[in-house]
């Protein structure tokens, strides 16, 4: 098993080993998007040993510092972060920020200074006065269906968001949402949930990769799993791409077979 924090390095005489943290550059190399893909959708989620994706309605309580470093790295690599409206409300989402550690890498890849946030919502029941809509570094997208309330779509546009239609009715079709963003040059996609949105991507079989942190905690209760909603008739098989460990937390990465 490859260890994430701390990793060790050898001194010049190879006689001693001292722990150090991986740099953000090393993490970015480890989690780089695959080359040669038209569009790639990865998810980043955390789960307890007994399958809870949240504690007291939020994921922070089951996370750790290393998990947050990976969280920041995955954002630093993405063109756009896809998130459900419920998660925006519960987690208090703010605009993604530019980070100096990823600036040169993003510029070389032809990316903007920070990933765009793309909110997936059928009802557009959102507070458009929040900084996510009024003062993002790059414009926020609102992805909805053609049957969404026209007044709410207009409110989103007035707040500065770009509205994308990805469904003929009131709901969003996951494959169309991915395609609509790709058509705007946003091909390195990351979803941070919540569980309902991830479940929709899984059911539509458009998820390419899952970055899952397994937290060494037990919560019991009735918290959501990392993915909810309708199930697949036949489970889809993913293959492990990497696994890292620190303080009992496992940082796994699985890709579509």
Structure characterization notes:
With 257 residues, this protein is α/β, with parallel strands linked by helices. Helix content is 26%, strand content 25%. It has helices at residues 24-30, 65-77, 85-91, 100-108, 131-134, 150-158, 174-182, 195-203; strands at residues 2-3, 7-10, 17-20, 40-48, 80-84, 116-120, 141-144, 162-165, 188-191, 209-215, 238-246, 249-256. The chain has a ten-stranded mixed beta sheet, sandwiched between helices. The chain has a two-stranded antiparallel sheet with strand order 2-3. α6 (150-158) links the parallel β7 (141-144) and β8 (162-165). The longest helix has 13 residues, at 65-77. The model is unreliable at 6-16 (pLDDT under 50). Pfam families: RibD_C. Residues 40-234 form the Bacterial bifunctional deaminase-reductase C-terminal domain. This is Pyrimidine reductase family protein.
């Amino acid at each position: 098993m490859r260890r994430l924090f701390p990793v060790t390095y050898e001194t010049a005489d190879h006689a001693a080993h001292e722990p150090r943290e991986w740099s953000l550059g090393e993490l970015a190399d480890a989690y780089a998007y695959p080359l040669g893909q038209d569009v790639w959708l990865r998810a980043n989620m955390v789960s307890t040993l007994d399958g809870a994706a949240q504690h007291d309605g939020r994921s922070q309580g089951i996370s750790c510092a290393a998990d947050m470093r990976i969280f920041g790295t995955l954002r630093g690599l993405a063109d756009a972060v896809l998130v459900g409206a419920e998660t925006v409300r519960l987690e208090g989402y703010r605009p993604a920020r530019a980070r100096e550690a990823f600036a040169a890498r993003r510029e070389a890849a032809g990316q903007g200074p920070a990933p765009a946030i793309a909110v997936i919502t059928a009802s557009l029941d959102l507070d458009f006065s929040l900084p996510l809509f009024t003062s993002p570094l790059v414009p926020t997208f609102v992805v909805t269906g053609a049957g969404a309330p026209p007044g709410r779509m207009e409110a989103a546009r007035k707040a500065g968001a770009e509205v994308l239609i990805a469904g003929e009715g009131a709901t969003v079709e996951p494959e169309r949402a991915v395609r609509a963003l790709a058509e705007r040059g946003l091909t390195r996609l990351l979803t941070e949930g919540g569980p309902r949105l991830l479940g929709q991507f899984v059911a539509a079989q458009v998820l390419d990769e899952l970055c899952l942190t397994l937290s060494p905690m037990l919560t019991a209760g009735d918290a959501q799993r990392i993915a909810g909603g309708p199930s697949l008739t036949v489970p889809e098989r993913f293959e492990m791409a990497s696994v890292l460990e620190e303080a009992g937390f496992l940082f796994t990465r699985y890709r579509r077979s």
